[in-house]
Amino acid sequence: MELGVRLVGVILRILYVLTAPLFWLLARNTKSVSPIRDPILLRSATNLVTAIRNGELTSEKVTYAFIGRIHEVNLQLNAVVDQRFREAMEEARAVDGEVAAARSAGTLDQLFKNKPLLGIPFTVKESCSLAGLSNAVGCVDWEGRRATSDGEAVARMRKAGGIPLLVSNTPELCLGWETTNLVTGTTNNPYCIARTSGGSSGGESALLGCGASVASVSSDIAGSIRIPAAFCGVFGHKPTPGLVPYEGHIPTLSDPLFPQYLSVGPQCRFAEDLSLLLRVMAGPGALDETPVSCDKLRVFYKMEAGHSLALIEVEPALRDVIERAALYLRDECGAALCHDNFKELENTVEMSVSMFFSMQDIPNMLRDPDNPKRDKSLILEIFKSLCGTSSRSLQALGFTLLHRTGLFIQDTSRYCRLAEEFKDRIQRVLGADGVLLYPVFSSRAYRHGQVFTRTSGFCYSMLFNVLGLPATAVPCGLAPDGLPLSIQVIAAPHQDRLCFAVAKQLEKAFGGWNFPQMIT
C-alpha cells in the first residue's frame, strides 16, 4: 500500500474518533418521516400496472396518491427540487381515457405491450434531465437553468407510458456522496432525518425509502445509485456500462472512460420492478432476460476488502448479513458456495482512485469566472466554505481536494494496470453463472457531515464502476436501531439478470424494503 494512502487513512480514522462525540450531540434526533397510510403506496410498479390494466385502480388515483405522499414528507426530507404535479395529473387522466378506449376496442393487451409502464408515476434525479424542470444540479452558477429536453432514459420511460412527477436533489454537479448543495440544501434520510440519504442519487432514494415514489431514473458513476439505495433501504441497480444510454446527463465528460464508468439505471422498492424498469431504459432486446436457476448459481462472498489502514472496518451487522445471505442461497436455493479470496481487493482504494481520476474533463470547481485562465485557491475556498462565503459547496471542494491530491498515490499507472488485470480475472471467475456478495459501504447511513471522515467506504462501490461490472444494492432488513441493512450483488458484464434473480431471493429471505412506519 502507498505511504500517502496509509497516512490519509490514519488521519481520517483519528478525525472520525475525535469528531464522533460532536456529531452524536448534533444529531441525536432519531425521528423518521411520517407513517404510510395509503395502501396504494405499498404496492410495486409491476402490481400497479396490473391494477390499472384490470380496472382495479386508475392512473389518476395512483398518481394522486404519490403526489399526496410527496407533499406529506418533503418538508421533512427536502428531496424535491422541482415538480410538474398539475401536468402529471392531466397525463394520468389522459391515460385512463386511453385505457378505457382500448378496453372497449379489445386492444388492451396490445396497448400495455407497447407501454409496459402505462399510468405509473416515476421520479427523476435532476442530473438525468426532465424537460422543462430545473437542471442546475445543485450548482450556484447554473441556478435557474432548465432542461430543454428529456434525458434519453427519461424519454424511454415516458414512451413506455410512465408519468414523470419531479426532479430530485443531488450534490453539486453530483460531486459528492452526501446529497447537499448551496442551491437546494440537504436531503435527509427517511429512516432518521438526522442522517444522510447518501449521494449522489440521494433525493431519489429518500423519496423511494418512505413510499413517496415507486420508480426512479438515477445514475451511478462512483456508487451514486447503490450507496443511497443502501442507506434508504431500497433496491438500486448499476447496469452493465452502455446498456442504458446516458445522453442528457449533467455533467457529461468527453473522456472515453466516462461511458464505461457512468451508468444510468433504476431504483425501486421491490425486486420484481428491477427488470421491468431496466428493460424499458435499455430498450427492446438489449437486456438478456434468460431465466436464472438459482440452484445453478455459484456464489462468492467477501465481507470486507481486506485489512488496510486506508479502509474503515465494515460494521459487524453488515458482515453478518452478507454471511447469512450466502448461507441462505446455499441452504434454501441450492446455490454452490465458492471461495476466492480476491486478494486484489486489498488495493481497492488505490485502484479506484487511480482509475477514476485518470479521466479528463472532471469539472473544475476552482475555475475563476472573472479570470478563466486562473484557478482559485483550494485552501482559501475551503476556508470560505466553512465560513459560509464560498460559491462552492464543501462537498464539491472535498471532491476537488481528492482529485487534486490523488491521495498522494505515486505510481498510479501501476494501480491502473492492476485494476485492468483484476477486471479480466474477476470477469472470468464470475462467468455466466457467478455472483459476488459484498458490502455496498462500510457502514449504515452516517450522520450529516460525517462524509469527510467516512470517504474510504465509497471505494466498496466505486471500484465496480471502474471494473465495469453490474451491481445491485439489495435491502436486507433493519438493524436494531432502525437503520436499513444492505448488501451488494455483483455479476460479470451483461449478467444483470443474475443480480436480479439473487435480489428476488434475498427479498424473500430478509423482507426487502421495510419502512418502519406503515399503517395498513
Write a concise synopsis of the structure shown:
The chain has 520 residues and is of the alpha+beta class.
Total domains, how many?
1
Uncertain runs with pLDDT below 50, 5 residues or more? Answer: none
Bin the helical content: 25-40%
Question: What percent strand?
Answer: 5-15%
Mean pLDDT equals 95
What is the gyration radius calculated from CA atoms?
22 Å
CATH homolog superfamily: Amidase signature (AS) domain
Explain what you see:
With 520 residues, the chain is an alpha+beta fold. It has one domain (30-281, 292-510): Amidase signature (AS) enzymes. Helix content is 40%, strand content 15%. The strands form 4 sheets. An 11-stranded mixed β-sheet has the order 1-3-2-8-10-9-16-17-15-11-12, sandwiched between helices. Strand 4 (180-181) and strand 5 (185-186) form a beta hairpin. Helix 13 runs antiparallel to helix 14 (394-405). The radius of gyration is 22 Å and the shape is globular.
